[in-house]
Amino acid sequence: MQSFLEIFDIYLLEAMVNGILLGGVLALLALGLNLIFGVIDVTWICYAELVMIGMYGMYYLVQYYGLPYYAAAPLTILLVAAMGALLHYLVIAPLLGAAPINQLLATGGVLFVLQSFATVAFGIDFRNLGIRLPVLQFAEMHFSYSRLLSFLAALVGMVVIYLFMTRTYTGTAIRAIAQDRQIMALMGVDTKKIYLVTSALGGALAGLAACLLVLQYDVHPFVGLSFGPITFLICVLGGLGNFVGGFVAAFLFAEIISLGGLFSDLEWGYVLAFAFFIIMMFIRPGGLLARRQ
Amino acid sequence: MNFRQLIPWVVGAALIALPFVYRDPYHLHILVLILIWSFAYTSWSMMGRFGLVSLGHGGFMGVGAYVTALLWNHLGISPWIGIPIALVCAGALALIVAYPCFRFRITGHYFALVTLALSGIVLQIITATRDYTGGSLGYTPDRTKGSHLAALQFDDKTTWYLIALGVWGVGLLIWRWVDRSMDRYALEAISEDEDAAAAAGVNVTFEKLKITVISALMTALAGALYCQYQMFISPDTVSGIAVSLQMVFAVVVGGIYVALGPTVGAIITIMLAEGLRIGFGTKAVGWDNLVYGVLLVVFIIFLPKGILGSLLERIKPSSKR
């Protein structure tokens, strides 16, 4: 009995740590979405598809052009950042005055476009980088290096964004616009430019997430569906536009998925997470950290 | 009865007569698909036209299809009883999710994303219970050994065409019924301004709940019919986010505010998919969605009222829709 408990605890601990490691990347994705929502007041339904394109970018740069991983990553981040800016310029900007739900649906259309573009251009095969990182063993627990690396890189990415938002003029302007959209235009801030910069920044975060996720998952045109919905739920759970809430919610979600997957199949982890989300929406409709009215 | 009132009767009679005159099975198959999906799209737009953008209808459709098929395969319950049970399940699901949503005033983006979670849950549950549902490989209702009528399985395309036509007609009648009821005015007021509507004496939660449940029941029926007709369902074809978005897309293209808009949307999307499939064969995999997506974006930017909506507006600019 004693030994059974010990083994059980080790697995539990391992699942919990893996949950935290998963949470890092999810938090990164949630940060990107929250940034765009907080500043432009638009939900990019196709956010995970940008990540998918980024993962293909990594795959082609590394496998076909033979670039080393660390050289391909910045290129991918730039590529996805450019796509984010383009998405804003082509789709969101003409719709800024329309009903918010139209913007949401338009990005839903972009989701179809990106998914089927990937199907047409890259085929539906599962592809991977072919980089296999070793497994770290620590006190009878196993963690993959790729997850650890992702977690650390995600943290670094978030710190960089934080510094950018607090220490630079553009970052301050972005935060100011998130607080009051109308007034900032009167204060001499070029909102169009700021929107474009924010979109590019959101894209860059998706690109970074792509570089990290490609280490852990095979890429295929529908890979976005496996973490896209989760990302939205995290953002809503944390309160759309609330950076800290999104961060907390990401780790909560990751733990639920990871622990749920420990006791049963991985799908049940997702079911639990979704159910938790719906219940939390009723308890705290404004997000986890929202003040009660 | 003047000429205008006669049109629906003439068109209806022509549609009923069609399979007896024209019997090409492939074209009838396409027509049945168009009718079933039109019904599903109509049921989505019942809510969508009032600003209740749900991305959870893939979930309702999945419940309708899978509950019917599971009851038939595992318990031998005829779809005649199974479909009502499936409808009750979908209705209950709609109540469970929608009531708190409306009670706590979750609207707009938030409503769309909560319902998105709903379709995610249904998809994951179907995949997770793969021992019963076949998971992502799909599921086939057993072929009946006894009566075709009791099992609601017909090999004959004409029968299916008539069933689908009837259901589609009922869908349009429900639309018309809502369109002429007081609920429509209440819901339009709610979609403009909830507080003002409540102040004017509209029971906001009840009205929204009513239209949501009607919409969910209709969607579940569409799912069950699709399952009985195709005899094959998979999580990707009847549930999940892709199906939900597909519904939204077709309705937006056809026209969200007019009764026949979803039907026009279904005709366009299905003809497009079939046209590409015939024209390009297996090379066309993905192309139909690519065209859909581009069209969806273009429509939302330039023609938010949809093809039929914009056409009708152009034909009779002054009369009410």
Keywords:
heterodimer, A: 293 residues, mainly alpha, two-stranded antiparallel ribbon, 11 helices, 2 strands, 76% helix, globular, B: 321 residues, 16 helices, 0% strand
Question: What does this protein structure show overall?
Answer:
The complex is a heterodimer of chains A (293) and B (321). Chain A is built from eleven helices and two strands, in the order H-H-H-H-E-E-H-H-H-H-H-H-H. Chain A has helices at residues 2-40, 47-63, 69-92, 100-122, 145-167, 169-179, 181-186, 191-216, 224-238, 243-263, 266-283, and strands at 135-138, 141-144. In chain A, strands 1-2 form a two-stranded antiparallel ribbon. In chain A, strand 1 and strand 2 form a beta hairpin. In chain A, helix 2 (47-63) packs parallel to helix 4. Chain B has one domain. Helix content of chain B is 77%, strand content 0%. Chain B contains 16 helices and no strands. Chain B has helices at residues 3-21, 25-48, 57-75, 79-103, 108-128, 130-133, 148-151, 157-180, 182-192, 194-199, 204-230, 235-238, 241-254, 261-280, 287-302, 306-315. In chain B, helix 3 crosses helix 11. Chain B is globular, with a radius of gyration of 20 Å. The mean pLDDT of chain B is 84. Chains A and B meet through helix 4, helix 9 and helix 11 of A and helix 4, helix 5, helix 13 and helix 15 of B.
